[in-house]
Amino acid sequence: MPVPATQPTENSAASTDLQDNQAIAGPFVAQAVDFLARQYLPKIEHCLAGLSDEQIWSRPNQASNSIGNLVLHLCGNARQWIVAGVGGAPDTRTRDAEFSQTQTIPKNELGALLRSTVAQVEAVLSTLDPDLLLEPRLIQGVQVNVLQAVFHVTEHFSMHTGQIVLLTKLLRNKDLGFYDFSTGVPVHRW
Questions:
Q1: β-pairing, 142-145 with 187-188?
Q2: Is 40:161 a contact under the CB 8 Å cutoff?
Q3: According to the 3-state scheme, what is the secondary structure of 91-146?
Q4: pTM for the complete prediction?
Q5: What CA–CA distances, in Å, run from 155 to 3, 12, 52, 77, 103?
Q6: Are 149 and 86 in contact (CB under 8 A)?
Q7: What string of pLDDT tens digits covers the 190 residues of the chain?
Q8: I need a labelling partner for 153 at 20 to 30 A (CA). Which of 42, 43, 58, 146 fits?
Q9: In which element (H, E) is residue 35 found?
Q10: Around Cβ 136, how many Cβ atoms within 10 Å?
Q11: Is 77 helix (H, G, I), strand (E, B) or coil?
């Protein structure tokens, strides 16, 4: 004999929504942290390690940015959107300074700044309450929610990581060997 279906109550629907949010939010945030800290950061560090300070701060032309400028920009963006915008720290970003910097910052200092920024982002995201993903935030004068902020920083970091990788390949005139394809399956080397 079939069991009669029950209608969900308002409380059970809200409970299911909360469970769905938590089931999605955790993996989403964990994947964002993985991309930022364990995929993009090591690639940028590898690029910095293989270049001189002069190469890091050289610009292909006046309309382009140096690798150093791109690293400063990644730090500024991630701090503004995640550390300040999501985490509540003061927003002290001066975006134009990220691009106007022409004095050499040694690569070890630049790398330390990037590592520190990614660690701050990871700290904010690792303590993020999944229920806050849809909470609104005003970042860079734009109304977004926390999920959009995390997604923005992840895709933004990816885009500029690709630019840094390309510039490094052009400057070094060689493949950077991020992957081993000898078994037919790509294996990360970073």
A1: unpaired
A2: yes
A3: CCCCHHHHHHCCCCCCHHHHHHHHHHHHHHHHHHHHCCCHHHCCCEEEECCEEEEH
A4: 0.87
A5: 48, 35, 27, 11, 28
A6: yes
A7: 444 555 554 544 444 555 666 788 899 999 999 999 999 999 999 999 999 999 999 998 989 999 999 999 999 999 999 999 999 999 999 999 999 999 999 999 999 999 999 999 999 999 999 889 999 999 999 999 999 999 999 999 999 999 999 999 999 999 999 998 899 998 988 7
A8: 58
A9: none
A10: 10
A11: helix
Provide CATH code, domain 32-176.
1.20.120.450
**Residue ranges covered by each domain of the chain:** 32-176
Residues 6+ apart with CB under 8 A from 134: 21, 145, 146, 147
Helix/strand/coil for 69: helix
Beta-carbon count within 10 A of 132 CB: 14
